Amino acid sequence: MKHYLPLMFALILALAGNGCAVDTRPVVTVYAYHSDPPLYLPEKNNDLSQEWVKKFNHWQDQVEFRLVHLQRTELNRLVDAGKPYVILWANPLWFAFRDSQLQSSEPIFWDADIVISSSQQPLQYQGPEDFRGLRLGGRKGFYYKGLEQIIEDRELLRVDVGHDIDNYQRLSRNEIDAFIMTRASFLYWQQHKPELKELYVARTPHDAYSRHLLVSHGYQNLLPLINDFVEHCAQSLQWQARLKYWGVEKLLNPFELEFEELMDIEPQQAPDDPKSPTSSL
């Protein structure tokens, strides 16, 4: 028996060493600023942002991403100050005027800003001019194209909040006439919050865009690795299943879809307009 003791001791040390392995990869902070599901769900301790970062870290061994959530206004100040960054779920057009040297990954998926109103008073939105005379719910720190002049003319009252659910509640209390939210968040609501009812979704989005990772000049060497991972995810059935859980799997390639397919709801006529190209939830 005593002859086996050294062997057993060596085996225990080897197992202990494997269990205590230290990740020596360089750590890079990844910022996410969205405050709504599926991109941010602090009460559930899991969301699409966390899943993306975890999958990236598991997929490769060159760098470790660590996710940090910031408010958009905080992130704007960070970029304006010239600090290094990697930003998840952003579009280069939103930050290029703050940093002319930023670069972006390939698109992760496509999204849009959609116009939500009450099914009792539906807004048949075609463009920014349709907001004249209304009270519009927006988001703090967010830019919406085409609204500056209408607001300057005092023909649109924009009132910002921190979360989409705040705008939903204000719409329910008739404190605003409509609000803008992302299509991804609305799709999540459809799948996970069926109690949010009596919403009217204009068929014409206010804006459409792709979502990427943005990197500052010092992190541009990471782009080939990031782009390889984006391509990997686009082909991964496991990742597509996770996107389906979050309700956004159809946003991987929305240009192949009609609007009704993308929203996963049937178009419905507005009460006062038999030709209305809108859809109701």
From TrEMBL:
Residues 1-21 form the signal peptide. It comes from Lacimicrobium alkaliphilum. Keywords: Signal. This is Uncharacterized protein. The lineage of its organism: Bacteria, Pseudomonadati, Pseudomonadota, Gammaproteobacteria, Alteromonadales.
